[in-house]
Amino acid sequence: AAIIGFVVIVLxxxxxxxxxxxxxxxxxxxxxELIVILLDAFDITLTLPGIAGIILSIGMAVDANVIIFAxxxxxxxxxxxxxxxxxxxxxxxxxxxxxxxxxxxxxxAVLAIMGTGTIKGFAYTLALGIVLSMFTAxxxxxxxxxxxxALGAKSEKLYGTAKEKKAVNFTSRKAVxxxxxxxVILGGFVFMGINxxxxxxxxxxxxxxMGGTSTNVTFNEDMSLLDIDEKVxxxxxxxxxxxxxxxxxxxxxTEVIFKTRTLDVAERxxxxxxxxxxxxxxxxxxxxxxxxxxxxxxxxNAILSVLIAAVCMLVYIWFRFKDIRYGAxxxxxxxxxxxxxxxxxxxxxxxxxxxxxxxxxTIVGYSINATIVIxxxxxxxxxNMGRKETLxxxxxxxITQTLSRSVFTxxxxxxxxxxxxxxxxxxxxxxxxxxxxxxxxxxxxxVCITGALWYVFKTRFSKKKx
Length: 466
Known about the structure:
Elements: H1 2-41, H2 48-77, H3 82-114, H4 118-150, H5 174-197, H6 207-210, E1 212-218, H7 225-240, E2 246-249, E3 255-260, H8 265-279, E4 286-291, H9 296-321, H10 324-348, H11 354-384, H12 391-401, H13 403-423, H14 426-460
Antiparallel strand pairs: 1-3, 1-4, 2-3
Helix pairs in contact: 1-2, 1-4, 1-13, 2-3, 2-4, 2-11, 2-13, 3-4, 3-9, 3-11, 5-10, 7-8, 9-10, 9-11, 10-11, 10-14, 11-12, 11-14, 12-14, 13-14
């Protein structure tokens, strides 16, 4: 999945950004090599949340390059030479890249300090990925572009020119955007209530949250984990009606432990019969026992960590942008994305377990980075535009100028996660599915919600209105 996703992203970058895309692809290749080497060097355990952190950092590495290349094209469109456009483009893109990455680093630091178990794995890989992505985008990509330029790649056609775009009036549609978001979020809570009223839990809590059944099966041959996932797990999922089945092999034996939701007597008997009929397992060598929830403390720590991280990011954005309304809008958009994905979990009834925590943490990091890019452009345009521009025109122009970045970054990240969804086993798909929703929602909120929300805060809670 990673290889296919990477190849597709490389082809996309070269097709869209030409010589700059080639430089970015080479830098991205170096990034992947470095992160694998450093994961081993620091002896970081690679968990599912850890993989999520890597996916997010790859998306952010692409994002940094997209921001830079968009700036270079804008400078070329202004009539600057390619040499001057490259230098100015990197300079103007620096603040958005640094602020976006630092806010995500703050979240990673809080999660590393406050989190437990797999949450720390996510924080470590995310932090490592962010530092490397900044290095490859700001240093390696720039060096490669200078090399290509020195070798003769000096034509504007090799870099592209930004076309003049008429500003889309996003703020005039803010009522529609807000209504859609509120309806989706409230719909999620309605579904939770319906589930609760129907005798179910509001969310489909997995065995980590609710406890379950652990079944030991001794097979007649030593099966690989791949064979277990492909041949045994689907049969168990048919019995449980749940995609959350955990497997663990006992070293030196043919015994495998299957952890599922709590099975009643009839389901345990069906489980035993299925193993006997399909794999000729000795029924006497199948044992089952109840297990208790394992992540109740992890869940509370994760929630507390996210809240503290949100406050820290709010303070940083307030400090950097000199206006708390930027930070308030960013945190509100972050909360919006989390609640929309939560609604998806409630409607589709995907298991809520470790993958849920990993998914939500990934969306938190992804959402805040997209928001910072737009706010950076709003801040710049507020300083550069004349008095004749109204506040809503500044917001609409800023969103339009960063629209290609929002679309392309969401698309490249979506591609990586989609490959996981297509090629992964059921447990991976239960992680990738909601994450795809989160990526799409993050793109929507950054374009349609964040700027409009800041505009509302600015006009409603300001003595000086434009």
